[in-house]
């Protein structure tokens, strides 16, 4: 903004009067024609402009702008000059100060963040350097940290061997459990030696086994001084002189199936041969990722080979379906793809030697287990031989049990139950008795139903069965070991069964 300043200049010299040594100033135009509008030219004494007056040469020069002038009746020259506003802009300066303060605070805040980042970068740089050094050492040296772990494991196993030797001489009553522990510790020693030379990635698994053994040893040591009644000797392997299943152990995780996490459906177990009950190879048959097709299976001669992924025999077939697979007397029995047939495969040459239709059997997900597809036909093995669990249209989905001739696959006898198969999560046979499970929650199943083919009786049970993952895809029983081999969302689990000591 600008303000006007009216200057009344008494300039008597304008009319030709000289003051002092100044020469008389003469108007460049007649006084009657002096301009009224505001001029953009300068009022400079001594200049020759039309709107200026000039003193003699050598006078001081002044520059004025935006002025008007006229001569009054008395001959006095009066000028009106508009000058710029000289008021100091206090508000603007205050606003600039506030803005500068805010910017300064923001700058300090960002600067503090930068300092923190610099410190963090320095810390991580040191960690990265240390890690690089450790990796370089491991790459150059053949000795890895796992070898120290194995040495520690050996020491722990030796301590357990000493403890078991002391227990054998001090336990009151039967020493069956102690003898069993001694055998397991001896097997553990051999397994550690094999793991050390062949596979150094299973240290964690072996540590779990040692922890379980230590717990059992502590229990034995705690009870050695008590007057415990002598327990009856355990049943002979493969014997049916008991009153049925009354309990089941917690699961022992053997390992993930050899094809990986994506292969959540399948089956596994151990071959049972009445002629050589203590022998039998281990088999693992994961289905393809579609959860239906059985295309590949693997055989191992021992459990140690299975644990170490060594000495494996891989085979491929093109006609397997579902996880109802069973192995008996060196033959694998499967449901033929897209049919109600059963195939008998010779494990020595991987050939299907016999194919037989299961009469009236529903198939292709008509009456499969709950949450498990393509297992309408479920094959099973127990002390009495080969069985098949299925449903028919005539049974309206209720479970049907048939005893098979393991040579010809002809049905020898059939029993009809009142249990609806799609409400069952899985089933297995023990001494001619069908045991069925159902889901309780994501961590528990329950053996809730049985059907005894020996007497035709059926009823309810409440035996809790813990699991590692949500779904149980298959259950296979081994008569000699009296164990369940469970395929649980790709993981291979073992369970020990406990039987009623009193005969039926």
UniProtKB/TrEMBL annotation:
* SMART domains tied to this protein: OLF (SM00284)
Name a biological process GO annotation: signal transduction
The record's GO CC annotations read: extracellular space
Q: Where in the cell is it found?
A: Secreted
Q: What's the main place this protein lives?
A: secreted
Q: Which SUPFAM superfamilies match?
A: Nitrous oxide reductase, N-terminal domain (SSF50974)
Asked if the Swiss-Prot or TrEMBL record annotates the protein with the keyword Aminoacyl-tRNA synthetase, the reply is no
InterPro entries per UniProt: N2O_reductase_N, Olfac-like_dom, Olfactomedin-like_domain
Residue runs in coiled coils: none
> What is the annotated signal peptide range for this record?
1-20
- Record bears the keyword Secreted: yes
Q: Where is the Olfactomedin-like domain?
A: 239-501
What UniProt keywords are attached to this protein's entry? Secreted, Signal
| Pfam families, sorted | OLF
Name of the protein described by the UniProt record: Olfactomedin-4
Q: What is the organism of origin for this protein? A: Neomonachus schauinslandi (Hawaiian monk seal)
């Amino acid at each position: 903004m600008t303000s006007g300043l009216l200057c009344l200049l008494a300039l008597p010299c304008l009319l030709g009067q000289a003051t002092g040594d100044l020469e008389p100033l003469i108007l460049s135009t007649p006084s009657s024609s002096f301009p009224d509008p505001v001029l953009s030219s300068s009022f400079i004494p001594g200049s020759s402009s039309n709107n200026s007056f000039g003193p003699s040469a050598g006078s001081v020069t002044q520059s004025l702008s935006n002025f008007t002038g006229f001569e009054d009746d008395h001959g006095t020259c009066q000028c009106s000059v508009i000058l710029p506003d000289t008021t100091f802009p206090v508000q603007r300066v205050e606003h600039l100060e506030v803005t500068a303060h805010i910017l300064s605070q923001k700058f300090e805040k960002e600067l503090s963040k930068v300092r923190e980042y610099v410190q963090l970068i320095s810390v991580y740089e040191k960690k990265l350097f240390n890690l690089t050094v450790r990796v370089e050492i491991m790459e150059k040296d053949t000795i890895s940290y796992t070898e120290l772990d194995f040495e520690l494991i050996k020491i722990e196993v030796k301590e357990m061997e000493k403890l078991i030797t002391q227990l054998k001489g001090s336990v009151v009553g039967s020493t069956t459990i102690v003898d069993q522990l001694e055998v397991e510790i001896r097997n553990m020693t051999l397994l550690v030696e094999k793991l050390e030379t062949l596979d150094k990635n299973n240290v964690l698994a072996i540590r779990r086994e040692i922890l379980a053994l230590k717990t059992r040893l502590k229990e034995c040591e705690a009870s050695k001084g008590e007057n415990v009644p002598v327990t009856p000797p355990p049943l002979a392997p493969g014997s049916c002189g008991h009153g049925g299943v009354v309990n089941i152990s917690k699961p022992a995780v053997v390992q993930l199936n050899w094809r990986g996490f994506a292969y959540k459906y399948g089956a596994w177990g151990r071959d049972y041969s009445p002629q050589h009950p203590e022998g039998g190879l281990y088999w693992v048959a994961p289905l393809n990722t579609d959860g239906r097709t059985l295309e590949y299976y693997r055989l191992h001669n021992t459990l140690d080979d299975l644990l170490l992924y060594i000495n494996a025999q891989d085979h491929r077939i093109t006609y397997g379906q579902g996880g109802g697979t069973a192995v008996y007397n060196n033959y694998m029995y499967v449901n033929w793809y897209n049919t109600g047939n059963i195939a008998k495969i010779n494990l020595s040459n991987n050939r299907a030697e016999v194919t037989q239709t299961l009469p009236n059997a529903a198939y292709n997900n008509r009456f499969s287990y709950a949450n498990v597809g393509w297992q309408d036909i479920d094959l099973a093995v127990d002390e009495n031989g080969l069985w098949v669990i299925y449903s028919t249209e005539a049974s309206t989905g209720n479970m049907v049990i048939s005893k098979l001739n393991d040579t010809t696959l002809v049905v020898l006898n059939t029993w009809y139950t009142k249990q609806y198969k799609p409400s069952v999560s899985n089933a297995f046979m023990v001494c001619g008795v069908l045991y069925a499970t159902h889901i309780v929650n994501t961590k528990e199943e329950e053996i809730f139903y049985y059907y005894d083919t020996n007497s035709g009786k059926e009823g309810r049970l409440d035996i809790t069965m813990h699991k590692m993952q949500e779904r149980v895809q298959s259950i296979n029983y081994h008569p000699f070991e009296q164990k369940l081999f469970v395929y649980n969302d790709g993981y291979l689990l073992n369970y020990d069964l406990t039987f009623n000591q009193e005969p039926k």
